[in-house]
Amino acid sequence: MWIDTHCHLDAPEFDADREAVVARALAAGVSMQVLPAVEVANFEAVRRLAHQHGLVYALGIHPLYVDRAADEDLDRLQQALLTHRDDPRLVAVGEIGLDHFVPGLDRDRQQRFYTAQLKLAREAGLPVILHVRRSADGLLAGLRRIAVSGGIAHAFNGSHQQAAVFASLGFALGFGGAMSFERALNIRAIAAAVDAHVPVLETDAPDIPPQWLYRTAAQRAAGLTSRNEPAELPRIAAELAALRGWTLAETAERCAANARRVIPRLAPG
Question: Is 131 one of the annotated binding-site residues?
Answer without folding.
Answer: yes
